[in-house]
């Protein structure tokens, strides 16, 4: 979206205003920042010094961790608000389980949180720059006052405050030197503000980048775990279907053909009947193998896309399916496969367990590149995610593709399953 001409002046005026705001921030930190640093050092010293006295020092060290976190949180929010940085808010480590031991572990993890320490370091740097800035502001104010006094007919050289500066050059040389000193002090203040921006922004972005990488690692680990679990569930399903369906049928075909072979000379008609029975069983086994292969991979999905694959799936369903698919284009093979099998497993579960008379399937391509699908049946509800079950397999497949799953199945129904997968996963 193009900006209007009237919006340009405020944007042009923002950098000087931000420099002024930065100078005010540094001045405030120069006045009060060292008090915060002193409190932190006092808590550390008292905590270490009394740690051997029945653990009293642990209370101070715990307070130190909270104080460090508060300082880092304040610094992160200050820098983010001052420079409009897209950095996440600093969050406190929470105990993973109830109990004092979990609380201590959370405190220990918080005490080594790199982003917290970066925030504290940024606060100390800003406080140091603020102290230097106060010296520059003091010099600027003194020089400006002295120049005004000199131009007004006074003699700053006789003043103990300005005498050193204006006694160096007599006449108009003193005011010129004062003006030059004021310019240098103002330039130094602006330079400190710019230096503050460079340092604190670099620290904040480094912390945000580290946190982003940690989240990416966690997401990748979760996707890998989901992929491994999905493959294990799928392998178990294939083994179960082969063991309970195709294998017994093929064994029966072999036994039937063996009986026919024994009777072919003495009872040709009986042998023909056995061969016909074996032929029928063989065709049924082939059908089961095709269905099993289709459960492993739907070739129509690659050939004609998700819409056609879901149409074929709805046509084979044991319960009526209302299909509503609106897609402008194709997504990645991984995304389409994950959504297809989530819908297929949902329809299978509905046919087996829900006692539903109808299912409705809605598929959309949403903003942000998300392939979204919802399956709803009018069954009895009460569906739960059980290890190794159908819903567990759906969850693992979707998480492996980088997506999310939401299941809503109250007692009495209806059951609704929603999945969202990045289209380019």
* N- to C-terminal distance: 28 Å
Q: Work out the count of structural domains.
A: 3
Order of helices and strands: HHHHHHHHHEHEEHEE
Share of β-strand residues: 5-15%
Radius of gyration using CA atoms only: 37 Å
Mean pLDDT: 77
Strand order of the biggest β-sheet? 1-2-3-5-4
Low-confidence stretches: 1-13
Q: What does the overall shape look like?
A: elongated
Note the total helix count: 11
- What's the helical proportion of residues? 55-70%
Largest sheet: 5 strands, mixed
Structural class of the secondary structure composition?
A: alpha+beta
By DSSP, the count of extended strands is 5
Question: Helix and strand layout, with pairings?
Answer:
Blueprint: H1 8-49, H2 56-83, H3 100-111, H4 114-151, H5 163-166, H6 173-263, H7 268-296, H8 299-304, H9 306-316, E1 321-326, H10 333-354, E2 359-366, E3 370-377, H11 390-400, E4 404-408, E5 415-422
Parallel strand pairs: 1-2
Antiparallel strand pairs: 2-3, 3-5, 4-5
